[in-house]
Amino acid sequence: MKKDNLVRIKGRKLLVNGKEQRFRGVNIGSWMLIEHFMIGLPWTEYKMRELGRQILGPEKCAAFFDTYMDAFVSEADLRLLAKNGLNLIRLPFNYRHFESDAKPFEYQTEALKYFDRIIEWCRTCDVYVMLDLHAAPGVQARDWNAESAFGEAMLWDHPHFQERTARLWRFIAERYRNEPRVFGYEVLNEPLCPDPDVFNRFNRQVIKAIREVDREHIIVVESNEWGKKIATLATDLFDDPQVMPSSHHYHSQFPPFDRLTAYPGEHEGKRYGRDELAATLAPTFDYDRIDRPVLVGEFGIGRRWGNRPVSLAILDGLLGIFEDLGFAWTIWTYKDVGAMGILSPRAETPWKQFQELPEVASVRDAYRQARTDVQKLVLAKAPLVTEGDFGHFWGQSMHHWHAVTLPRVLGLLKDKSAEELAAMARSFAFENCEVDEEKLGVLRKHAGR
Fold first, then answer.
1. Which contacts of 77-80 are long-range, i.e. CB under 8 A and separated by 24 or more positions?
2. pTM of the shown model
3. Residue 394 predicted with pLDDT over 80
């Protein structure tokens, strides 16, 4: 294999065939790891599939989920990305596609076809793909997007789960070690480890496992605490010249950017513009200590979040800062049911119509309202509870809400035929989706720089 064919790190630059290449792109979220708010079903993916088999029956459940997997992304999707100057896909995946908890270390190869398809389309469209382990054995964080059904996060306490994660990466890296369209391997999405020594020891373990079979591809290590704090990454992780850091940044988590009525704008007498927005990035990179390229693996805006023109203006400003700093970036997300995606099923598609049924909409709306109501109650009655504490409390409560509501939402599909369920899943196919042209236009503006 010729090394130059791979994406390579040199200082703070990324090179392809010896020439600097800037990487800008999207996450293909809610495909190889389905998230509740992105598909419109409560709870975690494995619970969706588990209860789907029980309530719908194995055949009808397979008709929906198999069709969803086949329809969700196609060469047409990648052509749209390439046409708009986007050249990198971050591909989140669930370990459960490859390994069963009942049979650890026995790898299922069927799901590799999805990786292989994406890689072939990347080759055709001149796009690269980074493989991102979004949910690890044992669960790396208490969140739904790590496949935590009840707030469990056992990866950090059990060497068994850590070894399974390292060996899964070894299995994947061995298969793709000679593939130039693979940008690299992201060890773990949004880790939340209470012990910094355990966290860094785990990263070393995975890097070592990958390097046993693939000496050349880039390895991406994400900061602890949901990708927010670069200080959590040990300096020696970067002794390997082809390791780079990743961070996540959602401006909505930095008040008062989530409440501005204009950008740049004022809040309580203080101005918030480019400098203030750039300051929120300070904890996510450290060029003095880690002189490597930085990937912002996730950031983005929702369709219903606050003032949309302001959100788009902040997105535009944030991308400008990324570009000035030389960051690579992949926005969250490319496609979903209508929450944060650039594409979403059109109103007349059967899945979108199902989402608008009063029974289904009431589950979604009640969840949103309950968060607001409970937050007011808890913070008013418990002065020792902070906003941060509430976030943890609500995160745990959310799992139980979903456990109650998922069977009832699936029950609304029980009388559908396998053919009808497959048609609902095809709502996510490229030809059945509409494009958020405003958001895509902001990305295109910066991808062309």
1. 77/334, 77/335, 77/343, 77/430, 78/118, 78/121, 78/122, 78/124, 78/125, 78/127, 79/125, 80/430, 80/435
2. 0.96
3. no
